[in-house]
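quick one before i forget lol
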Amino acid sequence: MTAYAAPLTDMRFVIGELAGLAEIAALPGLGDTSPELVDAILDEAGKFGAEVLAPLNRPGDIAGCGFNEGLVRTPEGFKEAYGQFVEGGWNGLPFDPEYGGHGLPWLVSAAVSEIWNAANMALALCPLLTQGAAEMLIVHGSSELKSRYLRKLVSGEWTGTMNLTEPQAGSDLGQTRCKAVRKDGRYLISGQKIFITYGDHDLTENIIHTVLARTPDAPPGVKGLSLFVVPKFLLNEDGSLGERNDLRCLSIEHKLGINASPTCVMSYGDGGGASGFLIGEETRGIEYMFTMMNNARLAVGLEGVAIAERAYQQARDYARARVQGRLLGGGDPAPVAIVNHPDVRRMLLFMKAGTEAARALAYHVAASLDLARRHPDEAVRRDRRSQIDLLTPVIKAWCTDTAIEVANTGIQVHGGMGYIEETGAAQHLRDARIAAIYEGTNGIQALDLVGRKVARDKGAAATAFIATVGALGRQCGNAGGDDLTVIARRLLTGVEALGKATDWLVETYPRDPRAVAAGAVHYLRLFGIVAGGWLMARAALRATAKLVGGDDAEYLRGKVITARFFADQYLLQAEMLATLFTEGLSSVQAASNRHL
C-alpha cells in the first residue's frame, strides 16, 4: 500500500481561495485563525496522519477486531494511536473553549478530518461519532448532562456512539421497539440495537451511548421517540467512574471493509434495565438525533473525499512506477511507465478531478457552518443555513458515490495487481463502499433532497443556488482564455439542465411524488456535478489569476487542467442526467412486483 501524504497544497488552496478563510477568520470569536496558524495545524495533522495513523491502516484491515466474552479488542497499535490523538487535542478543534475545545472553525476541522479518514478510516470513525455526540449535547443537553459528560467527549477521553438501528427498524425509525421506562429520576432502557460503530472497544475507559427509545405512553412512529444518554459506566457524584451499566456487546459484524472498526450488536437491559438520562424533552428524540445525524452526514461526505484521495494517490504512484507497453504513436520500442498511456491518464484525471471537486464542495459547506453560526448579519446566517440544508444530502451522497467510482477506477489503473489485496487498492474500494450506506443510504439522501429540500419550499433554495452558479459561469466566460471559455460554456449548460430538472420536480411532485422519487438519484447526481463544477470553475478562475504572480505555477496550471477535465468529462453528463430524471423512468412505475 502506498504511503499516504496529505494533499496540503490543494487543501490550502481550497481553504483560502474557495472556502474563504479570510471571511471566516473575520467572524466573531475566530480572530486568531490566521493563515499561519491554519498552515501549522495542517502540517502537524499531515505528519500525524502519515506517521501514526496510516501505518496502521493495512495491518488493521488484515487483523480486524477481536471479540471474546463481550469484550472488543481493536487491532494492535490502535489504542496507543488513539491515546496520542487525544493527547494532541485533535478531537476538540471546533468546540468552544468553554467545554475544553480550541474554538477553531469547522472549516479547519473538516480539513483535518479528511486527513484522519484518508490515513485510517476505520480508526477515524471513532472520533467522528464522538464529535457528533458532543455537538448534539451542546445544542440539546441539559446543564447537568453537559457538566457530567461534555468535556470528556470534547477531549476524546470518552467516546460517543449513535444507537438508532434495530433488527426490524433500519431506516424506518418509526418501527423502533427499544423501551424507556421512568424510574427514580432516570429511565430504564431495554432493547437491542445493531450496526453500532464503536459500540464497544478498548480505546477509552468509558463510552457514552446516545440511544433512541420509546416511553410507554408515547405515540406510535417517530413522533414517539425520545433520546437518552446511556453510559457504559455510570458516574459517581464526584464524576468518577462507578458501576458498570446494564448493557453489553453481543457480537461484532464481519464486514466487507473497515475491518478494524468494530460494528457491534448492543443489548440494553438484560439485567433489568440500563440507566439512561433523558436528553431534552420526551418524544423529541428524532429532532435531537437529527442534529447528530446531519453532523455525521457531512462527516461521511468527508470520508468520501478522504478515501477518494487515498485511492488516487495509490493509483497515481503505481502508474508512475509500473513500466508496461510502448508509447502509442512513438518510434521508440522501449516500454514506458503506464502513466504515459492516454487511457491511464484519463482514469487518473477522472480520479483527481472528482476528488478535488468533492473536497471543494465539502469545505464550502464546512465554511457555511461557521458563517451560519457566527456571522453578525441574520440575513447571511439564514442564507447559509438554507444552503447547508440544501447541500447536506448532496455532500453525503455525491461525495461518497464519487469515492466509490474513484476507488473502483483505482483498481482498474492497477490492472490485475489491483485485484490483489497486497497492493492495497482493493481495501480503498471495500472501505469506501460503506459510506454510501451510512446515515441513510444515498437513495434516501436523494429522496430527502427532492422532497424536503426542493419540493417543500417550491424550489426556492435550489433556484437561489442555481442563480449563484449561473452568475459564476458568466463571470468565468467573461474572463477570457480557451480553458475558461470552455469551462464556462459547460457550466452554463449544466446550470440550464439543473434548472429545467428543478422546474419539473416542483411542478410534478405535488401530483405524482412517485414519479419524482423514481429518478431522485439522478437529480442528486446532477446537483452534485453542477455544484462541483461551480467550485471547479471558481478554482480555475482563481488559479488563472494567481498564475500572473508566478507562485506555485505547476500546481496552478494543473488546477486549471483538472477543472477543464471536470467540465469536459463530468459536466457534460448534466443534460443526460436531467433527461433521465424527467423522461427516462416511466418503466419504473410500469413494472409490477411480478416483473422484477
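fyi The chain has a mean pLDDT of 96.
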